Amino acid sequence: MAGAQHSLCPDRRIRGPPLSVHPLAPMRKNMSVHFHEEDLPEGVLGPGAVAVDTETMGLQLGRDRLCLVQISDGSGDEHLVRFATDSAFDAPNLKAVLADPDRLKLYHFARFDLASIRAYLGVMAAPVYCTKTASRLVRTYTDRHGLKDLVKELLGHEISKQQQSSDWGAPDLSDAQKDYAAADVRYLHALKERLDTRLAREGRTELAQACFEFLPYRAVLDLAGWADQDIFAHV
Ligand code: MN
Question: Which CATH class is domain 28-159+174-226?
Answer without folding.
Answer: alpha beta
